[in-house]
């Protein structure tokens, strides 16, 4: 059974989400205290985390940074603040998706299902290895020059899409189509945040990495020549 961890300090939100998700067949663990959620994370071992941004003690961004130190578990942000800066920051920190309260139950469920499908791809033919880059679309792993690059599910799928067509400029819309199953709801600017994080992760391993180039106003391409 798929296990979802809810982290939110609002009791009404936790109760409503728990009922919704359990009715859909998910196992749900709730944590109102973000520090307790982090302390118990390894024991809980969730398949996906739904995380509020504004909480006492630790913000959702701080929780995500600590999670990303040890885990690439998919994370969906919920927030009551209608702020584009929050959304971009959440994506920059490694979040996989972002929904504003009050949210549509059907939309939330669709996003969860899409993220879980992306994190457990059915295809077994997605093994790419060339010019120092190794990508495994089944295990969702990435290596550069033999070093492991810790990518989120969305970041790995973006890299897979670029690597399947090296040298070809792909638009943001093309990258969204391949990396998100519910692409009708995704802001193309989210791709820019993901690309920025991917580049930084590669440069943490190889400071000279410049294999992802952009064509202004068009999109991105993978060029390892």
Task: Describe the model.
With 225 residues, the protein is α/β, with parallel strands linked by helices. It folds into 2 domains: 3-119, Response regulator (Rossmann fold, 3-Layer(aba) Sandwich), CATH 3.40.50; 127-222, Arc Repressor Mutant, subunit A, CATH 1.10.10. Helices cover 41% and strands 22% of the residues. It contains 9 helices and 12 strands. It has helices at residues 11-23, 34-39, 41-44, 60-68, 84-92, 105-119, 153-164, 172-179, 189-205, and strands at 3-7, 27-31, 48-52, 75-79, 97-100, 127-130, 133-136, 141-144, 147-149, 170-171, 212-215, 219-222. It has a 5-stranded parallel beta sheet with strand order 2-1-3-4-5, sandwiched between helices. A 4-stranded antiparallel beta sheet has the order 6-7-8-9, with helices on one face. It has a 3-stranded antiparallel beta sheet with strand order 10-12-11. α7 (153-164) packs across α8 (172-179). The protein is globular and about 55 Å long. 34% of the residues are buried.
Q: What labels would you give this structure?
A:
225 residues; alpha/beta; Rossmann fold; Arc Repressor Mutant, subunit A; 2 domains; 5-stranded parallel β-sheet; 4-stranded antiparallel β-sheet; 12 strands; globular
Query: For the record, what is the CATH homologous superfamily label of the largest domain?
Result: Response regulator
Class inferred from helices and paired strands: alpha/beta
What order do the helices and strands follow? EHEHHEHEHEHEEEEHEHHEE
* Order of strands, widest sheet: 2-1-3-4-5
The total count of strands amounts to: 12
Number of helices: 9
Distance between the termini: 44 Å
Q: What is the number of independent domains?
A: 2
Outline, from the CA principal axes? globular
CATH class call of the largest domain: Alpha Beta
Beta content comes to 15-25%
What is the CATH topology of the largest domain?
A: Rossmann fold
